Amino acid sequence: MSTDTFTPDVIVVGAGLAGLVATHELALAGKRVLVLDQENRANLGGQAWWSLGGLLFVDSPEQRRMGITDSPELAWQDWQGSAQFDRLGDGTDGPGRGEDFWPQQWARAYVDFAHRDKRAYLHDLGLRSLPFVGWAERGDGRATGHGNSVPRFHLTWGTGPEVVRIFAEPVERAEADGLVRLAFRHQVDELVVEDGAVVGVRGTVLVDDESKRGVKSSRDAAGEFEHRAAAVVVTSGGIGHNHELMRRSWPTERVGPAPEHLISGVPAHVDGRMQGIAETAGATMVNRDRMWAYVEGIHNWDPVWPDHAIRILPGPSSMWFDATGKRLEGMSGVPGADSIGAMKQILAAGHDYSWFVLTQSMIEKEFALSGSEQNPDITGKDLKFLAQSRLAKGAPGPVEAFKEHGVDFVVADDLDELVTGMNELARGPKLDAFVLRHQIEARDREVDNSFSKDIQVMAIHNARRSRTDRLVRVARPHKVLDPAHGPLIAVRLNILSRKTLGGLETDLDGQCVAADGSRVPGLYAAGEVAGFGGGGVHGYNALEGTFLGGCIFSGRAVGKALAP
User: What is the Cα–Cα distance from 26 to 563, expressed in whole angstroms?
Assistant: First the structure.
């Protein structure tokens, strides 16, 4: 639709989830909004469309029905223990404020939102959650440390496409009514600054490209544009497909060396371009070294974008070994417990991959795959299909497909054969079957009782006290080398880029903050480009279910701030 005769009150750069939420709130208030995006309309909703649709709620009806006792006090304790905010500066909103000054305030506000308003806000728009509540990032073993003390991961009925739908539909209705213009294939190259205020955008009109959602598109130019408005909102996402930029900011001293082999959990258009463009206009980037790359990445056997990767969302039972064949230790050696802790152990071994060793019984109950397209039963809201795929014997179809076709999977009837296959895939040292057998047998001896000193076995028993985990998520404890639970399966796990936790610094209205603590007139940011709020609401670790939620919360805050 032409933008030539449309005079917007607000320009939104990025048609992902945060941009849609901000636009929805602005349109509700009668504001005219121009939304610009470098991709085509098929990509409306951005990364959120590809997501599993997990949302963190605190003390929800779903939690209470599953016998889970939660509270905002417990959630805030967990958030603080995970974020570990340690860059607070002098405590003033000025040059010495510290990079965590605004993120900590955003975090406090977000936990309150997750407890009070978030579920009702989304429910009124038509979103529904499955009754089972998942337990993501189960923690590092300390009450005041990283992790969720209780299950809080609410899976959307319809996954990511449904989260996108509830905002895209009202935005498209506002488009039909003339309040909103969606200008696709418009790549912003510059923010227009006059007298210290951002007053518009300039950029390149890209050639038409009818590629399907997620497919890398052309960057050939077809023209130029310039548009002006009283405010510009940047909602352009993170840097997850810009591996060079990720490696430049990689926290080597804290986590370990940047991986040589990195696969992408986000499409190619997630390039981080707008961060530098916003900085040039006076905004401040903070917490660049905080990012959320996963260690359970597998190469997609049916890729959409370059280096397309899928994350395994594991239950706690797979045994986890580094590239040398040493079992990971502590709670960070328990799958699904402590992502950054696991990464430190993996990279400390001198290689950028690790191994799961598990059984068919484990994969059938404990392997889920990230992505809306990997969960067609939930994405399609098909109850019959859901029952067949999740409750029937055997692993869900997409999991079995990866086991059969995925380049990272090895299946064997005995351990010697399994290790031979693992060594064919290894990018580093060859594994010794005797060394693996010794560690597996030691762990197997621990499952003869309902108690144990092995921290992973303890975590399994604890997990099965959750109704969700016992019913659909965690396999009954058994010996890995028991043929009755075979065959044996090994999975080579690669490091997968996903979310950037730092970003453009903003106040609680989403207005960008300059280096001296003043506000940048006319410039706002929301979503991942703003660290999901303030420039890094998660601190060092994410509790999961908070990325979509952070886009919603920050987009809503900006929309409401600019609505009057």
Answer: 5
Residues 378 and 408 occupy one common structural domain:
yes
Q: Looking at the structure, tell me whether residues 305 and 353 fall in a common domain.
A: yes
- Domain residues for the domain of 309 are 292-496
Q: Which of 104, 111, 180, 117 is nearest to 152 (CA)?
A: 111
CA angle 210, 216, 218 (to 5 degrees): 65
**Residue 425: which H helix or E strand, with range?**
helix 415-425
User: In terms of C-beta density within 10 A (0-12 exposed, 13-18 middle, 19 or more buried), how is residue 330 classed?
Assistant: middle
What pLDDT score was predicted for residue 392?
65
Contact 523, 198 (CB under 8 A): yes
Q: Where is the domain boundary, 496, 511, 528? A: 496
Q: How confident is the model at residue 4 (pLDDT cuts 50, 70, 90)?
A: low
Mark 519-528 as b/e (b = at least 16 C-beta within 10 Å): ebbbbbbbbb
Based on the structure, what is the number of domains in the chain? 2
CA atoms within 13 A on the CB side of 446: 18
Residue in this structure with the two tokens 């979503």, named with its chain if needed: 527
Residues 127 and 176 in one domain: yes
- 1 has pLDDT over 60: no
Rounded alpha-carbon distances, angstroms, from residue 440 to 211, 326, 455, 555: 47, 11, 14, 48
Reference 549, options 116, 113, 236, 12; nearest CA is 113
Q: Are residues 479 and 526 in the same domain?
A: no
Cβ(455)–Cβ(331) below 8 Å = yes
- Do 199 and 312 lie in a common domain? no
Q: Give the tokens for residue 320.
A: 């986890």
Any idea of the CA torsion for 64, 69, 75, 77, to the nearest 10 degrees? 180
Residue 10 has pLDDT above 60, yes or no: yes
pLDDT at 390 over 70: no
